[in-house]
Predict the 3D structure of the following.
Amino acid sequence: MTKNSGFFAGLDIGGTTVKSVLVDANAEQVGGLVEVRSLVKDGYEATFRQLENALEQLASGAGIDLSAIKGIGLDVPAPSSDGVIWGRANLGEDWVGTDIRGKLSERLGLPVYMTNDGNAAALGEYALRRKYHGSLLLVAPGTGLGGGLVLSGGTGYEGANGLALEVGHISVPFREDDGELPTCSCGLKGCVEAWVSLVALRRRLRFELAKPEWASHPLNEGDAPIEEKAFRLREFAEKGDALAVQIFKQQGFILGYAVADLVRVFDPGLVVVGGGLAETSFRDLYMGWIHEGFVDRAWPAYRHSPLDETKETTCFEWAIGGDASAAIGMAYAAREMFQ
């Protein structure tokens, strides 16, 4: 054991649940993943009570006293800077402009580190790769397109205001069938998130189903909302359905194309792809489509070493932390900062 034998908790606040884990001073996870409702719509005080509930369950599961927890890592599903929420996202109104980190630290009597969920997940994926010590870039398609960057040695990069690595909002030159750039949920046009996200999936599916060639497709049967049809698209892709494969192939290619520009800026060495597609049976195909987009845009030096053509300079891997990545990342960060 290290000289400090305390424990460190990672709390990942999502729109519906708080996921939490506990690690010891050696960064070994103690007990399992604990989940409680987040209540973010009811305000930060309601969620704080849920965080306390999660900490009590973590301590009980590990067979330790609550006082043995020496520090907290907290991530939030919104832009934040120095512990203050800058944008509402899916949170209640009272979160915005509030020093969440300071208030939680005062309430618990513990030091708290806070960042956004993309940074947290990147830290988690880094922490789970014990033998890897280089930089790591995470891209995670989901409802939107999140991401994060961990520098060599394990330090997350957040930027001067905690607003770095909004990877979903870099521009890509892909256009709709009518020649227009798609509008992103952020209000800008041409963002990669407007192509690579669940929201984008719904838009593309609606466009495709309106074409004569897909008139007899099973997803055109009935009057289910587009949200339900898009949710089923992954199931169709797993069965090799031509429409589903076409849409996911386009998404994968555009994601890889955008990653090439991120790699040109950060040269991370390792790109980790997260999100729900990591669990699909066609994930190897999807990774192949990502790589095709990457090769189309990346300079040769970012693909292979000029000294050894067999050595890849940018490697791609699927995320391995699943739903626990962000919570693990926060526990890891708290242990690094507060032991």
